[in-house]
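Newbie here. two chains, one complex. Structure please?
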Amino acid sequence: NFMLTQPHSVSESPGKTVTISCTGSSGSIASNYVQWYRQRPGSAPTTVIYEDNQRPSGVPDRFSGSIDSSSNSASLTISGLKTEDEADYYCQSYDSFGGGTKLTVL
Amino acid sequence: QVQLVQSGAEVKKPGASVKVSCKASGYTFTSYGITWVRQAPGQGLEWMGWISAYNGHTNYAQNLQGRVTMTTDTSTSTAYMELRSLRSDDTAVYYCARRRLGSWVDPWGQGTLVTVSS
């Protein structure tokens, strides 16, 4: 099984930039597209990035995704942080989800 | 708009079965698959498997093989997930989501809480 590892939590101040990593365990993370989902408490997840670096309509361009084959990892970068960005973020590739990262904006 | 509406919360005893429904609207049901994901209280997302609404092909998570069955009813654009021999650690919110190209799942249903307790 392909496992995805994320940091348990990250925190940053409003207006700053934060990057959340998602590292693949075995095989190449570039073999399948990576998606990123945001989940607020009590709600279902919603997509912020799909197919490695694509944003659905309605997601601001403060959100960006990338793949680094050399480290076998994907990254979600959120710039100009807002308090409303505070949530859990999950990466996903094929049939695996990362463990989730709790983003705190303080 | 594309929408997935799931059935209501369930309380089951250990050893029983549960069947959760997921009614799709706003798109051609047979053009996509349905993925099922669960989330135990305070935990992360766990991929359970998916079913093609076009031909009924399924792919289940290894740890659920033999206990889970996913089906669709194309006449009502509804997907179903049945889990048998329930245990307390099956207590979770169960989500369905439309499976798109590259295994992207979007949108998600609102979730169904299944509680397994004696």
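Moderator note: The two ends of chain A are 36 Å apart (CA to CA). The beta strands of chain A are 4-5, 9-12, 18-24, 34-39, 46-49, 63-68, 73-78, 87-93, 96-97, 101-105. Thread marked as resolved.
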